[in-house]
Design brief:
With 355 residues, this protein is of the alpha/beta class. The protein has one domain: Alpha-Beta Barrel (TIM Barrel). The strands form 2 sheets. Strands 3-4-5-6-7-8-9-10 form an 8-stranded parallel barrel. A two-stranded antiparallel ribbon has the order 1-2. Helix 8 packs parallel to helix 9. The longest helix has 17 residues. InterPro entries: GH (IPR017853), GH26_dom (IPR022790), Glyco_hydro_26 (IPR000805). Belongs to the glycosyl hydrolase 26 family. This is GH26 domain-containing protein.
Length: 355
């Protein structure tokens, strides 16, 4: 069954193609008719039990993150507060309180050999939020050779058993040069992607929406588009879009420009799965977020996920890779404006005055 959404125009965004996915409406996550879902990655406190975001260079089987930094959030309740006591949900609930609303999407990171769903994953699928499960990759040639078939089958069955719609973002940033030793080539990646989907299909896993997600930067000199498995293999197209530590200041529109040009040729909903404003931008963080809101109000963009974390920072002085808005009143206010705008609240969830 194919879900279809007619994408209209918004000011300055231009026309977008009619959007289709291979996901089954009502069973797997499908795009909203109007607007875009709002979500976030909110890491646990240092030493917490929930998973951290693995670095892009994490080796297969690594479940934890690369450099960890200051965690965002605290154990205070969110707008409703009813889920703050569930595993992994205290930081999410605190972030929701700051945003003045419940999230549509909560992101979770899992290593290639990590079991799921557990902890935060289980809490999210047990609520009315969507789980965005970011699953690390492995050696693509070994996947195609069948080395991991039993593992893949077990994960497929586990997702099916939740009985809830789940976004699955496998092997993100596959275009990065640092991952070439295990990704090998675009052809190898595509073969591995199709191998995973074949196993999920054999297990009759219908509640998954497949999210293909290279880096936005990969649409420059590298050709991230070469890793695209095909419209019949992908439900959502995605990009990770941090501004980049080598820029003094860069609007999100510039970061996404080449990716969006490429995406116009695909009849797919767009997800921006990791965007954030660096603390290095200081007083201009709120300005950046308000400009980002205008960029993301695009008729083809159907989900945006804020990366509310400092864990990619090399140390406490590294403000260019620190994206948490916690403690920055102006940045929190600007991000709350985005989160509570009708465009980014397509399910019309209750809105409060925020923190």
């Amino acid at each position: 069954m194919v879900a279809t959404v007619a994408a209209g125009c918004s000011d300055g965004a231009g026309a977008a193609p009619k959007i289709t996915t291979t996901a089954r409406a009502g069973i797997a996550p499908t795009p909203p008719q109007q607007g875009a879902y709002f979500g976030a990655w909110v890491p646990p406190p240092v030493g917490g039990a929930a998973t951290r975001s693995p670095s892009a260079t994490a080796s297969p089987g690594t479940a934890s993150a690369g450099p960890s930094g200051t965690a965002s959030g605290s154990a205070s309740p969110g707008p409703a507060g009813k889920d703050a006591d569930k595993p992994g949900m205290a930081p999410v609930s605190a972030f929701e309180r700051d945003m003045g609303r419940q999230l549509d999407i909560v992101q979770s990171y899992r290593g290639w050999k990590s079991e799921f769903p557990t902890g935060l994953d289980t809490s999210v699928v047990g609520s009315n939020r969507y789980l965005l499960l970011t699953w690390a990759g492995a050696d693509t040639k070994e996947i195609v050779q069948g080395k991991y078939d039993a593992l893949i089958r077990a994960r497929a069955k586990a997702i099916k058993a939740t009985g809830k719609p789940v976004f699955l973002r496998w092997s993100r940033d596959m275009d990065r040069a640092s991952l070439k030793d295990r990704v090998h080539s675009p052809a190898d990646f595509i073969a591995a992607w199709k191998h995973l989907r074949q196993i999920f299909t054999a297990e009759k896993v219908d509640n998954v929406a497949w999210v293909w997600c290279p880096s936005a930067r990969g649409f420059g000199a590298p050709n991230a588009g070469a890793f695209y498995p095909g419209d019949d293999q992908v439900d959502w197209i995605c990009a990770d879009a941090p501004p980049g530590a080598d820029y003094e200041y860069r609007d999100l529109s510039e970061t996404l420009k080449l990716f969006m040009q490429w995406a116009r040729g695909r009849h797919k909903p767009i997800m921006i799965a990791e965007f954030g404003v660096p603390k290095a931008y200081g007083q201009r963080r709120a300005e950046w977020l308000r400009a980002a809101t205008r960029t993301l109000e695009d008729p083809q963009v159907k989900a945006v996920v804020y990366f509310d974390s400092d864990e990619q920072a090399e140390d406490a002085r590294d403000k260019r890779r620190a994206y948490s808005v916690t403690g920055d009143t102006r940045a929190v206010s600007a991000l709350r404006e985005l989160a509570t705008a009708p465009y980014f609240n397509p399910r019309n969830l209750p809105v409060t005055s925020g923190g």
